[in-house]
Amino acid sequence: MDTSTQVIQVRGSEGRKYRTVEEKRRIVEDTLQPGASVSRVARMHGVNANQLFGWRRLYLEGRLKAKNGKPAGVGGAGKGSRAKQQRLASMRHDSD
Q1: Contact between residue 27 and residue 41 where contact means Cβ atoms under 8 Å apart
Q2: Tens digit of each residue's pLDDT (9 = 90 or more) over 4-44
């Protein structure tokens, strides 16, 4: 890959961006799509890839939840399409 044409974005005075649990879950779910690249999704959302991997680990462990302990966003933990549930199950199995 030719890096000489890549644009480097320098963080300005806006500082750190705080994301809601719902935003984190949506971003993580983007990485669970077939063929998705965690690094590419991270760049699209302006998130460090290592941070996104951390959110993803919490999500797969069922620990990315709102402060009240309930799953955040629409659908909640354990719900969703059958294909998504199967992907999550296979990812958990692969990480063992």
Answers
A1: yes
A2: 666 656 555 667 789 999 999 999 999 999 999 999 999 99
Domain ranges of the chain: 17-95
Take residue 15 and report the two structure tokens written for it. 């500082």
Q: Which of 75, 61, 17, 15 is nearest to 42 (CA)?
A: 17
Tell me the three state secondary structure of residue 76: coil
What type of residue is 19?
R
Q: Does residue 60 contact residue 93 with C-beta atoms inside 8 Å?
A: no
Q: How many CB atoms lie under 10 A from the CB of residue 58?
A: 16
- Integer-rounded Cα Rg, in Å, for the chain is 15
Looking at residues 62-75, what average pLDDT do you find?
Answer: 67
